[in-house]
Amino acid sequence: MTGKFISYLRVSTQKQGQSGLGLEAQRTAVASYLNGGKWTLVQEVVEVETGKRSDRPELQKALALCRVHRATLLIAKLDRLARNVHFVSGLMEAGVKFVAVDLPEANNLSVHIMASMAEHEAKAISERTRVALAAAKAQGTVLGGLRTRKDGTPWDLASVASKGSAEGVKVRRQNRDRFISDILPMIEEKQRQGATSLREIAAALNAEGAPAPRGGEWSSVQVMRLLKAAQEKEK
User: Fold this and answer.
1) In whole angstroms, what is the distance from residue 216 CA to residue 27 CA?
2) Closest CA to 7 of 84, 67, 79, 59
3) What domains can be seen in the chain, in order of their start residue?
4) pLDDT of residue 116
5) How far apart are CA 34 and CA 234, in angstroms?
6) DSSP codes joined into one string, 46-72
7) Phi, psi of 100 (to 5 degrees)
C-alpha cells in the first residue's frame, strides 16, 4: 500500500465516542488495510453523528484534507459514509478518492457504473440525433455547409468558441475557490500556533506535507497570493 490517506471514523452516539466503543475496531481495520508498503496516514478524523444526516462537518473536513494533501479517504466500513447511493455519488463529485476497507472494490465499481450510464446516455443521444437528421433530410433539408439556428440565422462560431472558453474559466475559478476554502482553515490554524509571517506559514504547510496549488512546496509568495485571492473572494 502506498500514498497518502485520511482516515474517517464515525460512531452514532456521544457515548460511543467517549468510550471509544466502535472506534478502536475501525482503527484496527484501517491499520490492517494499510499494513505494509510506503504509506502516510496524514490525519485521523473522528465524527460522532448519525449516518442518516449528510451535513457532517467532520466528513467535510476530511474531504478538504484529502483535496489539500491529494490523499485518499479511508474508511473501515462503507456504511460509515452513508446508507444511500446518492450520497456516495456526491463524494465522488467532490473530487476525492475513497476506499472502504470492507469493500475496497466499491470505488471502482461505482466508477464503472457511472461510466456505463454515461456511455448509455451518449449512445441514446447519438441515436436521437441520427433519427432527427434522417427525418430532416427526408423533408428536403440540406445537411452540412453553413450551420444555422432554428430561426434560420447562422451560428456565430466565434461566439461558440468564446462560450467554451468562458466555461473553462468558470471551472478553473471554481477549482481555485474550492482549494482556497480547503487550505484556508489550515493556514489559520498555523497562525494560531504562532506562524505569523508568510515564510513561517509556508514552512508550516511544507512540514505538514500539504502540496502547493500546482504541486511542490509552498513559498512565501504563494501564501501571499492565496491570502490575497481569499480576500478578493470574500468581497
Assistant:
1) 30
2) 59
3) 3-106 (3.40.50.1390), 157-234 (no CATH)
4) 55
5) 40
6) EEE--TT-S--HHHHHHHHHHHHHT-E
7) -100, 125
pLDDT per residue over 100-110, tens digit each?
887 776 655 65
Whether the per-residue pLDDT at 142 is higher than 80: the answer is: no
If 0-12 CB within 10 Å is exposed, 13-18 middle and 19+ buried, where does residue 138 land?
Answer: exposed
Distances (CA, A) of 129 to 32, 43, 181: 52, 50, 41
Q: How far apart are CA 177 and CA 91, in angstroms?
A: 18
Residue with cell 432554428: 150
Using CA atoms, how far apart are residues 233 and 235, in angstroms rounded to an integer?
6
Provide the grid cell at 156: 456565430
**Other C-beta atoms lying within 10 Å of the C-beta of residue 112:** 11
Claim: this prediction has a pTM higher than 0.85: no
